[in-house]
Amino acid sequence: MPVFLNAAAPEFETEFTAFLGAKREDSPDVDDIVAGIIADVRARGDDAVVELTAKFDRLELTADQLRFSEAEVDALIEQVPAEERVALELAATRIRAYHERQLPEDAQWTDEAGAELGWRWSAVSAAGLYVPGGLASYPSSVLMNAIPAKVAGVERLAITVPTPDGHANPLVLLAARLSGVDEIYRIGGAQAVAALAYGTETIPPVDKITGPGNAFVAAAKRRVFGKVGIDMIAGPSEILVIADNTADPEWVALDMLSQAEHDESAQAILVTDDATLADAVVKAVETQLETLERREIAGASWRDNGAVILVPNLETAAKVSDRVAPEHLELCVADPDRLAGLIKHAGAIFMGSWTPEAIGDYVGGPNHVLPTARSARFSSGLNVLDFMKKTTLSKMTPGALRAIGPAAETLAISESLEAHGLSVRARLNKLNELG
Amino acid sequence: MPVFLNAAAPEFETEFTAFLGAKREDSPDVDDIVAGIIADVRARGDDAVVELTAKFDRLELTADQLRFSEAEVDALIEQVPAEERVALELAATRIRAYHERQLPEDAQWTDEAGAELGWRWSAVSAAGLYVPGGLASYPSSVLMNAIPAKVAGVERLAITVPTPDGHANPLVLLAARLSGVDEIYRIGGAQAVAALAYGTETIPPVDKITGPGNAFVAAAKRRVFGKVGIDMIAGPSEILVIADNTADPEWVALDMLSQAEHDESAQAILVTDDATLADAVVKAVETQLETLERREIAGASWRDNGAVILVPNLETAAKVSDRVAPEHLELCVADPDRLAGLIKHAGAIFMGSWTPEAIGDYVGGPNHVLPTARSARFSSGLNVLDFMKKTTLSKMTPGALRAIGPAAETLAISESLEAHGLSVRARLNKLNELG
C-alpha cells in the first residue's frame, strides 16, 4: 500500500521525515569488480574491451568492429518506421531549439581601477555518452544527452551502446544520427566507461562522460570522475503531482503511473487539498493497474514507494513539495503560475492539466535528464553548460596594478606567501622607478 | 632538476606525453577511516563531533561551544591590523563586484506550437564551506568561496574551520564576517564534512559543501556527494607561463615561484619561444630559491615538477598549453589578447606582464578556486552558478498539446512505456470530444 499522510495530523512531521528518509533502492556493491574492469581496460585496451564484450554481451567482435560503420548505421536506420522517424525528428528539433537558448554569453569590461576583467565560455572538446542497451535503451535519452553537447559546440561526440547478442535498437541509432553524434561504439558496462575515459587503440579518450546506466556504469563513472568530468549519478526517479479539485483524477493517475512504470524504485506522490480527489486518483490508479502492460513494475512502485499527502491548502503543498525537491513536479491546479511561484526546489515543473509529464520526456523541449532523489536542492537538469567551461580573464594596466597591487601584497604577506608578494612588489618597484 | 623539452625535437611528443602523465601527488588511502568517522557522526551527532575534535584538534569543547559566538568573533576580529583589514575589504568588494555579474537570467517564451517554455534559476538554500586550519588557513579562500554563495542568494551559509589547540585565525573570521557568513563552527576534518552533510543536534545540515581540504576532507566530500552537492575535488595546483622576448625574467621567475611555494606537488611550467629568456628565468628562479622563506617547498616543487618548454612560435605555445589545460595561465607576451584567442583550455588567464597571477589570488575579482590537474578541459572555476540550480518550466495549451502530443505518444509506444502514451492520449481524446 502506498503511504497516506495528512499534513494537518500531529504525527505528520515524524511520518513525513521517515518517508523522505526511506531508501528506495539497494545499490549492489560492485565497486571491486568495476575497479578490476577499469584496470584491465587501461592495461590492455581493445583486447580487454573485446573480451569483456564477449563475456557480458555474448558478442564476438574484433577490435575494428567495436565501432559501427556508417553503412551499418545507414542499414539499421532504414528499418525505422516513418511515423517514428517523424516523431523523433520533431523531438530533436524542439529539444535543439530549447537548448540553443541556453548558450551563455561571454563578458568583458573595464572597472574603476582600470582593470580589464571578463570571462569566456568554451566547449569541452570531446564528450562520451553512455546509452544503456536492452529494455532501458531509450532513443529519447540519446537526443536529451547528445543535442545539448552538440549545441554547446563539442567537436567530437562518441556514444557507447551495448548490443547484447548483437541486437541493436534502430531508433537509438537514428537518434544518434539526428543529434550529430560522430562515433558509435557497440560496447557497454564499466568497460565502455573505462574506454571513454582512458582511451584504447581504437577509441580515443573523451573529456566528459554523461548518460544513465546500471550499477556497474554508475560505479565506473564515480571512479573515473576527476580524470574526466561526469554528469550526475542518477538515482531512482520520481514525480510529485500537486492537484486541486479542478484536476481530472484519471489524468493524474496516468501521470503518476507514467513515472511508476519506469522502475520498481520509482516514486509517485500526490499532494492535494481535496480528499475526494485523492480517493478518486487512488481508485483510478488501481483500475489502470489491472490492465497496464507494465503493471507488475508500476504496481510494485506504487505499493512500495507511492504516497498520497493531504494538505490544508496549496501553500502547504508547495512546502511539502520543496521538502521532496522532486525530479518532476506537475501542477494540476487552477492557477499553476501562482503555485509555481511558491516552489523553490524541483528539477522540472509541468504547469497545468494540459501538460502531462510525458510531454517533457519526449517533445516538450526541456531536458528529461533531471536531478533525482532530492538532489534538485542543489543541482540542475542536464543542459548546455554541462558541456562548456568558463575561463576567467584578467588584464592589469600599470594604473590598475598601482591601485590594487599593494592590497594583494599585504594579503600575501599575511598568508606567509612571500613569492606571491614579491611578484607584485617587483612590478610596483618598476612603476615607482618609472615615476 | 626541472624538465627541459624542445617542441621541435623528434622525441618531444613522447617526452611531453610522459610529462603530462606523471603523478605529482600520492593520495593516501584514508577511505576506511573516513567512512568510520562519517558513520559515527551520523549515529551520535554532536557527541561524536566533540570527541573527534578533542582527538584530532586537541580541543575540549561542549556541544554548545562548537559554534563561535558573535562575541567571540567580534573579539578575534579586533585583533586584525588596520592595513590587513583594509586590504581584505578591498578584496571582498572587488570579488563581489565580479561575481555579481555572473547572476544568470531567467527565461520564458512561447514557441510556434503555442507551448510556454522557460527556466528559472534559484539559489541553494543552505551551503557549507570547509576552511582548512593551520598553515593552509587562507582568508582569501574564505572570500572566494563565501562571496559567490551569498551573491547567488544562499540563505544559510555555514563555515567550518578547525582551531587546532584552540588557535583561531582572526583574518579568517574577518573574511567570514565580510562575506556575510551566518554560522562559524570550530571543527574540521571528515567530522566537519559529515556534520555539514547530515546535520547534528546543533549543526543543521546543508545542501552543498565547497572548499579545499586535506585527504580526509577530500575523501569525505566524495562520500557525501549525492546526499549533498560538492564542488570539485582539488588536486595539486599549477601555473603555466607563456613568455616571449618582451618578458622580464625576474618577474616570470617570481610568478612561477608563487605557484611553487604553495606545495611540493605544485607545478610551474614556462613555455617560451626564446631560449635566452628561458635561461634567464631558470637562473632567476635559482637565485630566488637561495633566499625565499618557503625555499624548501618551492625548491622541491621546481626540481620535481617544474618544466621549461621551448617552442618554435607562440601558436605552438598555445597548443602545448591546451594539452596541459593549466589552472593558471599567464601570458607575458607583447600581444596577450591575440594569444588568449588561441587558447581553449585554462582555468584563468592573466594577460600581459602587468598581471601577476598573485593579483588573481587576492584582489583581481575573478575566483581563485580553479580546476586543477588538467580538469580545465571540462570544468570551470568556482562561480555563482555553483550555488544555484535551474528549474525548467513547461506549459502546454490545448493547441500546443494537439500539435506535439501525438509525437510524444508515438515515441512512448516505441519505448514500450504505455502509461506515458496513455497520459497524453487521455488529453488528446478529451480535445477530440471538445472538437
UniProtKB/TrEMBL annotation, chains A, B:
It comes from the Bacteria. It catalyses: L-histidinol + 2 NAD(+) + H2O = L-histidine + 2 NADH + 3 H(+). One of its GO terms (biological process) is L-histidine biosynthetic process. Substrate binds at residues 237, 259, 262, 328, 361, 415, 420. Zn(2+) binds at residues 259, 262, 361, 420. Keywords: Amino-acid biosynthesis, Histidine biosynthesis, Metal-binding, NAD, Oxidoreductase, Zinc. Its cofactor is Zn(2+). Pathway: Amino-acid biosynthesis; L-histidine biosynthesis; L-histidine from 5-phospho-alpha-D-ribose 1-diphosphate: step 9/9. NAD(+) binds at residues 130, 191, 214. PROSITE patterns: HISOL_DEHYDROGENASE. Gene3D superfamilies: 1.20.5.1300, Nitrogenase molybdenum iron protein domain (3.40.50.1980). The keyword Amino-acid biosynthesis applies. Pfam families: Histidinol_dh. The active site is at 327 (proton acceptor), 328 (proton acceptor). Binds 1 zinc ion per subunit. Belongs to the histidinol dehydrogenase family. NCBIfam families: hisD (TIGR00069). HAMAP family: HisD (MF_01024). This is Histidinol dehydrogenase.
